[in-house]
Amino acid sequence: MNTKILATFAAALLSSAFFVPQVSAEVYSLDSCRALALSNNKELMVKAEKVKQAGYTRKEAFAAYLPGIDFAGGYTYNQKNLSIFDSDQHLPVGTFDPVTKGYKYTQATFPAIGPDGKPIIGADGKPVMVPLTLPDGTPIPEQTALIPKEAMEFDIHNVFFGAVTLTQPIYMGGKIVALNKLADINERAAIELQRSEQQNVIYAVDAAYWTVVSLKAKHELAKSFVNLLDTLDRNVKLMMEQGVATRSDLLSVDVKLNEANVDLLKVENGLSLSRMALAQICGLPVHTPISVADEGASTINPRAQISSSYSMEEVYASRPDLQALELATDAASMQKRVALSGMLPNVALMGSYSFSNPNMFDGFKTKFNGAFSVGVMVKIPLWHWGGNYNKFRAARSEETIMKLQLEDAKEKIELQVSQAVYKAQEAVKTYQATEANLAKAQDNLRTATLGFREGVITTSDVMAAQTAWLKANSENIDALIDVQLCDVYLSKVLGTL
Of 354, 367, 362, 370, nearest to 159 (Cα)? Predict the structure, then answer.
């Protein structure tokens, strides 16, 4: 019995606070038990969700081929208005000079003041005029145009803005293609892992199912053995009354009968626990009354021969766990391609429509207005101190590791298949040998029973023949169940379960 079944028995034992007798148990076939387990197993449900998750990831990766459209907007409150001038401005007014083809300005003048504080009078009897300049010597024009400070103030207390942006990748160094292939590989790997878990569940169901069959057969065998000893006990008591048997003979039979009753009780408890374990694996309540269709060794037809001819290439192609490992190797190759894209140029087409309120597209106006813009963005990695290259080398090493693990797994699977074939062939030969031993034990018991009736065989010899018969039957049942389990295990390692 493997560790998984023992753990299941332990879980069923701990979960049962008291024994509930099984009445009117529903009969389940092996196929119905498998179907129940596959539909109720929580680990399989997790694997199914992982398959869905991988499918969503694949669709997400495909979306990277398509343009992305985004919207961004906001609101800003500003404390102060925006003003171009700090004070009123005076612009000079000039006239066009066709000779110089430029503008000339009339400079402002004022009367010259003498030392006595009075205007200086010229020869023509008029005050002498001098040009008017700023302290830095800049001439002051005689005529100017006034631009008030308030005319160049802009209200930016409340500003609304937004943009709709479109981004279309053109070349990302092969990253998008690699990510799509990686997502597809991961989805297929999730499916293979789900198939592998299904095989594990089926094998666990079969092991629990045939354990119930085995214990049921041993239960019937134990009851038959108790009946034999009970009959022998009555016969010895009659012989004691007739003086042909001793009290020692009766005590020996009584001890053996008590041991048989204890063994019968142990088998009954084991059978109840095995039914609980099967119900738990099938996803039913632990105390569900359950009976299996193959309860009775006579209904089982073990395979007479196990074929030793098989193609390892077909085995490799059928094993879901190996397929998942091969897909993991392919995924490592795609990860290497993703790392390589980090050293290649990226090109993307950019387009956007930006708008704001207030806006300056047609003078300063407090209303919404916007404009389109289109461009191309190129990003070329130049120098990252070897970071991108080392990332690529790490991905390449991971790919090498996965390839080595794949080769190692194939070697181990080949050994596993060979061991399973030998074990299955050995189980068939053991069953055939137990069949021959059982026939001899039955003949020996029949002979001992007749000899005891004739008084030529002692009580100890009869009990020895009965014990040998019990052992031969028990070994025959174990061998029969072992053939079934070895056949299932062989199908599992061949990937055909």
Answer: 367
Q: Structural domain tally of the chain?
A: 2
Kindly give, in sequence order, each residue whose CB lies less than 8 Å from that of residue 247, ignoring residues fewer than 6 positions away: 240
Tell me, yes or no, if the pTM score tops 0.90.
no
Task: Output the pLDDT for position 270.
Answer: 92
Q: At what angle do helices 30-40 and 247-281 cross, to 10 degrees?
A: 50
Q: Record the tokens describing residue 430, joined without a space.
A: 């053991």
d(CA 30, CA 209): 7
Domain range for 257 is 3-67+173-344+383-494
Burial 92-103 (b: 16+ CB within 10 A, else e): eeeeeeeeeeee
When mean pLDDT is compared over 4-8, 137-141, 165-169, the highest value belongs to 165-169
Q: How many CB atoms lie within 10 A of CB 207?
A: 22
Tens-place pLDDT, residues 184-204: 999 999 999 999 999 999 999
Residues 201, 132: one domain?
Answer: no
Which residues are CB-neighbours of 454 under 8 A, at least 6 positions away?
Answer: none
Residue type, 197: E
